[in-house]
Amino acid sequence: MSSLQARGPRQADVAREAGVSQSTVSMVLGGAAERQRISPETRRRVLEAARRLRYSPAAAPRAAAGAPRPTRGLLLGVHTFEPVFPTSTGDYYFEFMRGIEEQAVAEACNLVLFTATQTEDGIRRIYDAEGTNALRHALGSVLLGHHAGHEELARLAREGYPYVFIGRREVPDADVAYVGGDYRAATARIVDQLVALGHRRIAYLGEEKRDEPQNDRWEGFKAALTRFGLDVPEPAFTAPDALTTQWLDAALAGGATALLVESVNLVRVLAVMTGVRGLSIPRDLSVVLLVDDPGGPAASHPWACLRVPRNAMGRRAVRLLVQLLGDPSGDHDRQILLPCEHTLTGTVAPPPTGSTP
Q: What does the pLDDT read at residue 1?
């Protein structure tokens, strides 16, 4: 008897059968496909795969060995790929860490922060120089950080070590459990509102290093413009110190009246450049920051921004990890995208009078 027959089909099996991610399966089977703008063709493939495999969450069998286990008092690890302490309430990681701690308390679990594997480049690896899993002292871990190596995530999965990553990560041949933000849908909604204000040429400024969260923002932007029949611009994926006023000049000469920016460092450089050129935000150019606003060009003038649900992501990651430890054979939703809010207050206005439509 195959392992699939023995334990019953799971969402991960449906995802492999349909050739999509498990988060897509979760959204389709959970009735959120239309809201998340999943195409009818993708929906059809997922539903057909579920029928072929006879997938049913309510009827998923569970072996006696996989019965729920007590989780009170478990030791959970927290591994960050870059330093996050000491921190302040304004630090990007603060709400993630607070959410992790709050949920650990709610679950009656203990936390340990792993820091011993930091290398000379400032990145904390999961495996030490001898190839030993540094997280082994905890039963399972929550992982977060910009510098996550896909090869380390894949190795953890191969070894069967339970973990949940904060942020969407798709790793070949590894069923990575994660809790991320739905940046694709949120970015598309921002474009919808910019178009409703009259913007027809929108530029895009992204980070040089591209991971799933950055790609999701770009894909949401591109899909929304395509839906409106508007031109998709050539994006600038660059480091802040490589951004030039010539790029800004070219974007404005091309008719851009609005700009989406992926990072705080990029938007800070942009603010200086617009000042050098004598431009006013948002009178001459509307700007939306695609992460949380750390403080706009002036204290009373915040950036329009996408709001990452950081506290909720931290809490949900701990909750999912506890579920995986307490019920390893359960049919848990292992790939979760939480909705993001946004505000266009502060640095967004209708396009300047006389701008090219």
A: 41
